[in-house]
From TrEMBL:
InterPro entries: Glyco_trans_2-like, Glycosyltransf_2, Nucleotide-diphossugar_trans
Alphabetic keyword roster: Glycosyltransferase, Transferase
Domain Glycosyltransferase 2-like: residue ranges: 7-176
Matches recorded under PANTHER family: GLYCOSYLTRANSFERASE, GLYCOSYLTRANSFERASE 2-LIKE DOMAIN-CONTAINING PROTEIN
Name of the protein in its database record: Glycosyltransferase family 2 protein
Amino acid sequence: MSGPGISVVICAYTEDRWEDILAAVSSVRAQSRPALETLLVVDHNETLRERLAKEYKESSEGSVVRVLANAGPRGLSAGRNTGIAAARGEVVAFLDDDAVAERDWLRHFAEAYTDERVMAVGGRTVPVWASGRRPHWFPEEFDWVVGCTYRGLPRGRVRVRNVLGGNASFRRSAFDAAGGFATGIGRDGDKRPLGCEETELCIRLSRARPDAVLLIDDRAVIHHRVPEIREHFRYFRTRTYAEGLSKALVARSVGADKGLESERRYATRVLPGGVARGLRDALLARPGGAGRAGAIVAGVLTAAGGYVVGSVRARRGGTTFRVPAVEVAARE
C-alpha cells in the first residue's frame, strides 16, 4: 500500500448510538484503501467502553480496532486528542460515530497527501434525514447545523481556511506544530457550545505553519445521520445560537479578522442568494420557499445574538479553554 498510513479516530459517548457506531466502524473496514487502524475513543462511559472492547475483541474480521477511554476532560476535543496521541499513522482521520464513509473515502484523503505541504484534508458530508427527506423549510445553506456540508462551500479539491471536523484528516505533524484540539470549545454530549474546535485548530495550524495547505476534496464522502429531533426549528435555533457562542471563543483565540474571515463571505454572498431563492420559490408557489428564506434570516440573527453573548462572557472570563500539547504514543 503506497502513501501514508492512516489511523481513523471515531469518538463515541452514548450507547444510544450503538448500531451507528458499529456501522461507522464497518464502513472504515470496507475501505478500498485500508486504514492502518481504527481507534474508538469512548468519552467517560465505562459501560460503553467495556461493551465495545468486548465486541471488537471477539471480532477478528477486517482491520485492527482499538477501544480507548478518553484520557482528558469530558468532551469531543479531548476525545480526539486521546485518539491522536494513540494513533500510529502518519495521517489521522476523523469520522463521526453516527456517520458512514463511502468506500473510497480514505483513498481520496491519501491522494492529497502526496504533496508534502498538505497538512489537512476534509471531505463532503451528506445528511441522511430521519424522516426520509429534507424538511421543506430547512435551507441547504444551513446544513452545518446538522453537521453536514452546506451550500456555499467550494466544489472539487480546493484550498480552504478550515476543514469540518466530522469528516476530516490531518497529517500527524500538524499536531506537533500546533497542538491538539482546544478543550472548552467543542462538543460535550448535547451541551453548548457545540462546535468550531476544528476551525480554531486549522487557523492556529496555519499560523504555526504558514506554508501549510488545507484542502477539501468533495469526493471524500460520508453520510451523516440526522435524527428526527434535529429536523425541527427549535433545534435549528438552539444550534445557530450555540454556533455564535463558539465563534466568539474562536475569535478570542485567533482574532476576529481570521476567525470570522470565511463567515463574512458566507453572510454577505451565500446567504443573500439563499434568501432570494427562497422568496422566488414562494412567488412561484413552490413548497417551503418562504420558510427557507425566513429560516436563513432567523439563523443569522440567532447566531449573531450568540456571538454577542459569547463575546461578553469571554471578556468577563466566564468561559475558558486551553490548547493541549499532544503526547505521541510509541510507534510500532
